[in-house]
């Protein structure tokens, strides 16, 4: 049975399904914030299926998408157990067909999801690899981590870290104690990159400010400073078993190698506190593989209804 709810009703029912999740993109806070900022131009279509699956969908131009933002949600999916999601999809499709929608577009679907498995069996569905998320399984110590890297990457990691420490002996790394203010450093540094400058619109800045406020217990801004100047900032989601490196900004012109260095320090700190996985999230940048990242694919699925 499919039931459509208003956003407030939907979030009230959904929260118990997401409060234990280590994936912020599947949380009610994420979707509320997105609807208030980047998602203002979409119409919510929030469905509950059989009281055990939640489908946060949105509509634009008679097409249906997953809520949360393709550009900013590294994972997207309906929410429920894998078995229940498989059972829910035929009912969702029938409901959308009755409403005479043209197309359902599912972005950022993890390969491990039963959503991906379900639609693979349907011949008329278009499925394409959308991006990869290099992930590192972390050992118990930094030395063990280094030993797992191939010889070339191990040598380069040590060389780059030593080179940066020699060039900038006054460097300091610290966790922000005032992220709502320090996020301005992240914005400034991101805007040094032309692609990130284009991405970081005023509305996107509003969304990021909302993240550090609403996810205060699970987000961390890590700052690298050199003689009082903030050279690099990383923005991560941190949970007991996993760190998600969500974004970063760095001044490569004045502090060459600072971005790589702070990512290495972030990884080392994760190992030191017993975190099991370091997720670089979407993007196939070379440095992620130099740290030993292994591909984890997400997919785009398009269904003509």
UniProtKB/TrEMBL annotation:
Transmembrane regions: none
InterPro entries from the UniProt entry: Acyl_CoA_acyltransferase, BioF2-like_GNAT_dom
Gene3D superfamilies from the UniProt entry: 3.40.630.30
Domain BioF2-like acetyltransferase: 151-288
Any Pfam family hit: Acetyltransf_6
SUPFAM superfamilies in the record: Acyl-CoA N-acyltransferases (Nat)
Protein name: BioF2-like acetyltransferase domain-containing protein
Native organism: Candidatus Gottesmanbacteria bacterium GW2011_GWA1_43_11
């Amino acid at each position: 049975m499919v039931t459509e709810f208003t956003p407030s009703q939907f979030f009230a029912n959904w929260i118990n399904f997401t409060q234990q999740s280590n994936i912020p993109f599947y949380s009610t806070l994420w979707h509320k914030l997105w609807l208030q900022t980047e998602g203002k131009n979409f119409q919510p279509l929030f469905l509950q299926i059989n009281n055990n699956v939640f489908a946060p969908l949105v509509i634009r131009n008679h097409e249906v998408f997953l809520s949360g933002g393709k550009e900013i949600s590294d994972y997207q999916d309906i929410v429920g157990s894998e078995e229940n999601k498989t059972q829910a999809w035929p009912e969702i499709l029938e409901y959308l067909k009755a409403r005479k929608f043209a197309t359902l577009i599912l972005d950022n679907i993890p390969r491990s999801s039963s959503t991906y498995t379900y639609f693979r069996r349907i011949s008329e569905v278009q499925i394409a690899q959308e991006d990869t998320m290099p992930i590192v399984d972390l050992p118990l110590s930094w030395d063990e981590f280094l030993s797992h890297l191939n010889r070339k990457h191990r040598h380069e990691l040590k060389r780059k870290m030593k080179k940066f420490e020699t060039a900038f002996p006054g460097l300091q790394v610290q966790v922000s104690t005032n992220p709502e203010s320090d996020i301005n450093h992240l914005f400034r540094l991101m805007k040094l990159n032309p692609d990130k400058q284009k991405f970081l619109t005023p509305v996107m800045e509003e969304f990021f400010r909302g993240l550090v406020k609403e996810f205060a217990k699970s987000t961390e801004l890590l700052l690298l400073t050199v003689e009082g100047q903030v050279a690099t900032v990383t923005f991560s989601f941190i949970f007991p078993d996993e760190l998600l490196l969500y974004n970063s900004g760095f001044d490569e012109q004045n502090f060459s190698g600072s971005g790589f260095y702070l990512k290495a320090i972030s990884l080392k700190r994760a190992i030191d506190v017993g975190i099991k996985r370091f997720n670089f999230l979407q993007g196939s940048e070379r440095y992620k593989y130099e740290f030993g990242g292994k591909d984890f694919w997400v997919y785009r699925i398009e269904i003509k209804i």
